[in-house]
Amino acid sequence: MNNPFFKNKGPFKIDKLLKLAKVANLNNFKSFLIKDIKDLSSSSKNDITFFHSKKYELLAKKTKASFCLTTQNLKDYLPSSCKTIVVTNVLIDTAKITEFFYPDSINDNFDNSVKEISKTLFKKKVNYGTNVLIGKNVKIGKNCSIGHNSIIEKNVMIGNNCSIGSNTIIRNTIVKNNVNILDGCVIGKKGFGFFPNKIKNYRYPQVGVVIIDDNSEIGCGSTIDRGSMSNTVIGKNTYLDNQIHIAHNVKIGDNCIIAGQVGFAGSSTLGNHVMIGGQSGISGHLKIGNNVQIAGGSGVIKDIPDNSKVMGYPAKDLKSFIRENK
Fold first, then answer.
1. How many domains does one find in the chain?
2. CATH code at position 267
3. Structural domain span for residue 79
4. I need a labelling partner for 288 at 20 to 30 A (CA). Which of 14, 37, 116, 316 fits?
5. In this predicted structure, what is the pLDDT of residue 29?
6. Which residues, 6 or more positions from 197, have their beta carbon under 8 angstroms from its beta carbon?
């Protein structure tokens, strides 16, 4: 899904982009027009992508991008249709090029376009409390309610029969039908995307959105960061307890139940029918299969296959954990 909110300032000539990455020999690249920067799986012809870890070699082999920022050690995994651009720091150079395409994605200052809901077209359509503010480019469906002191900032789409609690902030988010978002949530702000640099940490642009699918519930005080280059997704009929943090690019499947104070690092993926006990932690870039059960307080640091039950730190097979801790 293309981002419906951040405007792409491209296309740009490839040599202009490579100057940002300080590529030494620009003579090897013609003034080819690049339409966009995308991840390995979603990129297509005339796009530029990036490949920084062997963990993604299968995606790299299938990418349809015309160009790819990568390292000397990884370049041979890419298809011949994708021209490799070897750089010193793939992630920082990717951040610079992404910022060039999407300059509006860097700052998350408060939305000064908001108006009191009583001064908008939603005043007769929405059941709302006091001090509710609505930004530009907002759509709200039928039979929705918004609690006191909540702000629906710019770039939000809310479906039918949705309930937004009090003291909640939402931006850069697509909420589908029959969704409940309880009090004190912050959804769609930029994630914790920093790359270390000699002078200062370099912030990665967050150009994705949050998508919350039908019939889901987000508990009080939860935070869901928008995606960096892909989207952050909460599946259908998935219930999050209070005080849960979901970092950028996390994808949670359908019919999942996640207890309070669980934290997800960036870019991990959960299958369907996953249950996670309270105060568990899920490290980044992991794949959790379908029908997985993770006991409370567990620390997940590696992939978990379908139909597993795990517990402990590091999380291991539940029977093994009980046997070892008798």
1. 2
2. 2.160.10.10
3. 12-105
4. 37
5. 72
6. 92
